[in-house]
Protein 1
Amino acid sequence: MIRLQDIDHRLADLAHEIAQLPKHIAEIEKKLTAHERKLEADRAALAANQKERKACDVAIQTQEQKISKLKDQMLSAKTNDQYRAFQNEIEFCQNEIRKSEDRILELMSESEPLDKNVKIAESALKAEKAEVEKEKAVARERSAADQKSAAELNAERATIVAQVTSSTLQRYERARKARRGIGVAEVVDGRCMQCNMALRLQYLQELKKGDQILSCESCQRILFYNPPVKVEDLADGAASAAPSK
């Protein structure tokens, strides 16, 4: 029954670990996805920056072409008012060109950190993907090892269960389910080490005989008792284990 308790504890730990591994993988993949989205956002911002710069270049070319046509038209101006009107239009186009040039400078200053961030993020993401794949491989190996261990322990458990009486097994299972997975308790100094209740003297003597399965009268866990080892017994054991000269 003590070994059965150990097996059940280990199986519970393995079941918890097996259940947590997919969650761990999902968590690191979620973090990776968040970084991928951030990189895509930086790429989109950089692309938008470059697109606007091209639009400004086109706008400048358009205004320059317009200025060229206005200058040609100025030659045919017949009055001062017409001449001044052409000058005003040319000045307006030149102002638009300056605005576009200023905007291009702003976009260039904005694009430098964006481009730097994208390159750094791409490098970091590549390394992170490799690390995630490595962690996933380790998790799969760990899960496979845990499942193998669980199968072996379940086989051993089945062998133990076949060797105990159904009434003893039922007592153990009832106590285990009612007492947070602990169905067996050691008795030390006359007390149950799980609920800390003292055993009646007669009940303790019956337990020490070891000829029947007894449960704690307080917590209903199956009890076991390990007699204390005497110092002289340890000394005798060491002496008998020592090689003779």
Note: The domain at 2-163 is CATH 1.10.287.1490 (Helix Hairpins).
Protein 2
Amino acid sequence: MQSVHSKRILRLGKTKILYFTTHMNQHILTRQQARKIILHAAGLDRPAPFGTGREAVYQVIDHLGYVQIDTNYVVERAHHHAIATRVPDYEIEWLNELQEEGLIYEYLTSDSGYMPMHEVRFSLPTKESFRVKNESLTRAEINLMKSILDRIGREGPLMVTDFENDRMKASSGWWDWRPAKVALERLYRDGRLMTTRAKDFKKRYDLPGNLIPADVDLTMPTPEEFARHVIKRNLKALGIAYAKELNWRARFVKNNLIKQELPKLVEEGEICAVAVEGLKSAILYMLPVYKDKNIELSGDAFILSPFDTLNVFRHRLRDFFDFDYQIECFVPEAKRKYGYFSLPILIGEAFVARMDAKADRKTRILIVHNLHFESLELNEHDLLKLTEAIKRLVLFNQCRDIKISKSNNEQYLEAIKQGLE
């Protein structure tokens, strides 16, 4: 362990005044140790770390605390993809079954995701924040929300399509929701409604009392309790994290106490302050269980969703894996380098490639527009593992065949094509 000084700065207008320092013991890690901890926490150190079957799906969500939902359907949706990466026999129906049984629920942390129902009380501060925002709405908006609540109370769960088109003018774009949709989402965010998903992925809005089991604790956590939960819960999934990442996971709760609670938890031994050799950065944090944990990676290949827990913070991939990754579906076409929906490929502790793929559901062919390899040397074993991962991705997307259009490494591509025959 190494003792370092943490500087605190008082801001007076544009003037900065250094006014005190504190001692904080930091656990020093090599970059390789840090990578192993992050991959173990993410459930990507070996195949099937949570087992198989429907119970393993729940274990994934309970461990990660949050599996991000995304609507993009170029390949199978992100939440299904992330789970299938960790549960090899995953069936997409299992997710809806777990929600119908009251074991998981959908809500927001930094984004929308599936979370374990037994922790639903920790969503209450976020809902309270949205409820405060709704106090400034117009009388017409409040009346619409009330009428929607009354109708769902009478009729049961409804979709936005169950409400007549109340748009006053033509839609102007993607997020130009009509008033009923806006009202439903406001009620969902402030906690007066919850959602499940139909088979076509459309939301069904329902009253919380119909979805939350009676024995689930709904006590509002104190600000300190909420902050500590967010810190420890997300360190369990991230392995090692900066304060800004932990704070992002609670970004809808204004004036949360995460930054204030971090040094307290370090002092109490509940978490550790961490520094990584060769990485000049802000203080990092991890759970004490990793201080002396021996982690061995299997060396298997994982083709990841862009919205996988491992990938959502771009700076982490640069800092720990020397991998500069961006989801280029958000980049203008002329500026894309690798493709619209490029999937990161991990082998062992290294990101070795990215695959721009699309599932053609009519022909049942997985089309790979671009398989771009990083500047790393892969051996025969690596290419075999990658080929096996590609086969799994084809089957997971309910395709029968694969077509790879181009690659920047013809030697690797030829070896993969031979393995796919």
Note: Residues 301-420 form a domain with the Aminopeptidase fold (CATH 3.40.630).
Protein 3
Amino acid sequence: MTVSIVSFTEEDIQTFKQSPETYQTFRKDIELELQSAHAVTLRGSEAQATALADFTEKMKTRLARKPLMIDQLMPSFPPVCRRLTPGPGYLEALVQPNVDVISTPIREIVEDGIITADGTRRQVDAIACATGFDTSFHGRYPIYGEDGVTLAERWKYVPETYLSVAVDGFPNFFTYLGPNSGLGTGNLLILIERMADYFTDCAAKIQRDNIAAMSVNSNSVRRFVEHCDKYFERTVFTMNCRSWYKGGTEDGRVSALWPGMVASDFGFSVS
């Protein structure tokens, strides 16, 4: 994966200021590029096959100095099943002469180093533990809904929402970037903007019609959850990889991602 940095000249900036049409075209070109990558998330798509071949070739090229590491590090799952973490320079660092990649599990930490499962004792100066993060975090204070049920209890097994912004049984409660709101591809800012539009429309109706409480219908929540599950069956996200998209599991429900692409789901046009 290539990361590009664009520097704008003073002339570019002035052109954007003086020509809204030019700036709009520039913005739409960026959005088109982002949205066009969505096909890579679909199982069996040509884009997914191309991505797999491209990623595999690039990894082999960057690990060529230590070819035995290719089998160690090559993922068994397709691209995008987990969040892409390009890490510029990471693979190149692993093939340096002063770096050893040891995949044998650590059996014991001793005074001067570690002992791996094969009985080998290795002296080290420092140990850095990278154990991931806790996906069960519930926040600093409880959120109560009807009948005293907390949001943590409501979401204990399946974090269900309507369009990721509202939960049945929790009147006048709206969330930014709730369950099933993240994007596998595309521009998250558009999603946030549409959520804000939804919240403010609801708040305006509450004020205008003197409504005491507004709550989403439980059937709407159920149907959105069913829609999400059916959609993700067709994607690489439900393939066998451990991912925070699935709560840190290999085969759990995809509860972190939006079921689709921003452009089609929110009426955003890049043409």
Note: Residues 63 and 69 are 7 Å apart (CA to CA).
Protein 4
Amino acid sequence: MARINLLPWRAERRKQRLQEFYSMLGIAAVLAVVISLAIVLYYNAKIDTQNDRNNYLQGQITQLDTQLKEIAELDKKKERLLRRKQVIEELQSSRSQMVHLFDEMARTITDGTQIMSIQQNGDELSIQGRAQSNARVSTYMRNLEASGWMTNPDLSIIEATGGEKGLPYQFNLKVTLKNPNAEAAADANGAATGAAGQGGKP
């Protein structure tokens, strides 16, 4: 006996297409979820890598900051040591200079002249004294200029006070101190530098 399909073939075909559509829609949804998860995992991995780089760089920056602080402290220590060295060198230089200075003061004093006080302010020396006459003071100033350790004598006051019969004139003068040994060493260094510079030229 032959079977007869009483269902409309159009409805059956529509139902089949609808099932296929839902199947494709489900597959597309699953693929979308998988792709989204893959994208999220990829960018999370990139973010983690960048965070690791940032943490590494931050650690290096911290180390550099520490090293810069140590370098700054070393620079301060170096500056303090250089200042101490300079002070010591100045003291040594001034010590020898003062020995020569007092020797020159004794040598340059003329007869009929008496030194009452000496005051030093940096490279300037103030001298107060008494003299028999203006000529004695002029001679004393010439001796100071020729000493080599003092220069530019400047007489500020000379007056007859009558306080002491043999030395009636009181005077105040200033001289500039210099160190001929230091100047000679500087000239020698300059000459040596110039000779070395000329020797290097073809």
Note: The two ends are 126 Å apart (CA to CA).
